[in-house]
Amino acid sequence: MNSSNLWMVSIPLCYEVNGSCSRTIYSFGVQLAIYMACAMGMLLTVLGNLMVLIAVSHFKALHTPTNFLLLSLALADLLLGLTVLPFSAIRSVESCWYFGDDFCRLHTFLDTLFCLTSIFHLCFISIDRHYAICDPLLYPTKFTIRVACIYIGISWGVPSVYTFVFLYTGEIEEGLDHFFQDVPCVGSCQLLFNKLWGWINFPLFFFPCLIMITLYVKIFIVANRQARQISNLNRSSGSGLPLEASKRERKAAKTLGIAVGIYLVCWLPFTIDTLVDCLLNFITPPVLFDVLIWFAYFNSACNPLIYVFSYRWFRKAVKLVLTSLENDTARLFPPNVKITYII
């Protein structure tokens, strides 16, 4: 069979040195398709989160505690798209790491930092929405700018310390050699994917997921109960004014449900795979691993679409930004109107 008819052809080495990783060369069409898919993912991640940053930063009416959380989330996802995804795309397509061990460690640090930071933000946003819907009267006093800053500090601080300790602190590795898998060959960048890291990573991704699911179920129950109460009030009083509140609560529950669902679709396969690899001595093929990790990356592109782009006020804000109508803020937000939350 002619090699040009093969979907992929294996080349022995990434580098012409002993111990080099084997390299996989895809046909031109497949290689181009993968690069385009990765480029589209990066473009969606960068542009979507950049629009969130610009809109929330520019319009003072959007300077609320919840929106500051979204602003910080967008920053983490934007940095992931700018600093991590381009090199991950090259590694996925070329099946080799060409940027050296030091940069591999830095790339892994940033990758884990931004992904964990994004997940922590999603968890805190769920907590914020839980208070807003389940305890609306006390919500303005419970979730203030100060509380939002504390949540943001935890979301950045804990992942930073955790990742730094496991990547740059030599003391952690002492006495734990039986847990760690050495880098298998020259040209590989998989420092984090060892047994110890896999066992610790699983609860780090699983518990925020469990928190979000629990809060979503409670929010869904409370939102339905409030909707029924408002509907009964409308029928008894003949007033339709509270109807907007009912729609708002239902939209909040629906939005958070979509967020949790997409989070599960994006992160659960990768998280389960890392745990299975720990138990079965890293049996995941490199191609499958790349697919799973890019599914996880895709969550950062979805966050602006879930939390922000589905709202009319944000689409209007983006339109004003894109058309350079910076002096028309009053058309978007009438005087004495302040947006307290977006979902």
Keywords:
single chain, 343 residues, mainly alpha, Rhopdopsin 7-helix transmembrane proteins, two-stranded antiparallel sheet, 11 helices, 2 strands, transmembrane helix, disulfide bond, cell membrane, GPCR_Rhodpsn_7TM, TAAR_fam
Describe this protein's structure:
- The structure is a single chain.
- This protein is an all-alpha fold.
- It has one domain (44-326): Rhopdopsin 7-helix transmembrane proteins (Up-down Bundle), CATH 1.20.1070.
- Helices cover 72% and strands 2% of the residues.
- The protein has a two-stranded antiparallel sheet.
- The termini are far apart.
- 33% of the residues are buried.
- The model is unreliable at 3-10 (pLDDT under 50).
Distance from N terminus to C terminus (CA atoms, Å) equals 58 Å
What is the helical fraction, as a range of percent? over 70%
Q: Uncertain regions: pLDDT < 50 for 5+ in a row?
A: 3-10
Strands in their spatial order, largest beta sheet: 1-2
Mean pLDDT: 78
Q: Oligomer, anyone?
A: single chain
The amount of beta strand, in percent, is: under 5%
Q: Using the 3D structure, state the CATH architecture.
A: Up-down Bundle
Number of strands: 2
Q: Could you state the order of secondary-structure elements as H and E?
A: EEHHHHHHHHHHH
What is the top-level CATH class? Mainly Alpha
Counting helices, strands and paired strands, the structural category is mainly alpha
Radius of gyration: 23 Å
Tally of discrete structural domains: 1
Biggest sheet: strands, sense, closure? 2 strands, antiparallel
Number of helices: 11
Determine the CATH topology: Rhopdopsin 7-helix transmembrane proteins
CATH level-4 homologous superfamily: Rhodopsin 7-helix transmembrane proteins
Specify the overall morphology.
elongated
